[in-house]
Amino acid sequence: MEDLIKTYIFIFSHFNDAFCVISAFLLLVSIDYICIININVLYFKLYFLNVLFEEICLHFISYRFHMLIFLAQKS
Fold first, then answer.
1. Nearest-angstrom CA–CA distance, 66 and 68
2. Using CA atoms, how far apart are residues 51 and 75, in angstroms rounded to an integer?
3. What DSSP line would sit under 11-25, residue for residue?
4. Which of 18, 20, 47, 65 could covalently link to 12 via disulfide, CB atoms 3.0 to 4.6 Å apart?
5. Count of structural domains, the chain
6. What is the rounded distance in angstroms from the CA atom of residue 8 to the CA atom of residue 11?
7. Residue 32 structural domain
8. Where are the alpha helices (DSSP H) in the chain?
């Protein structure tokens, strides 16, 4: 399960962050319809959101870092 989540995030993190968030939301909503009351699903959701948040933060930091390098090279 953990590998599946990481693979999913790895694939979508190479696209737009907004697309990644929307995809994650759709995945979580579909899980709700499959199994509404299940502790494992709740754990999966919390884990998935945590990993997704970390991935977006890393993406943002990486973007800012590359922008700083670009600006330094221009000046």
1. 5
2. 36
3. HHTTS-HHHHHHHHH
4. 20
5. 1
6. 5
7. 2-74
8. 2-12, 17-34, 39-74
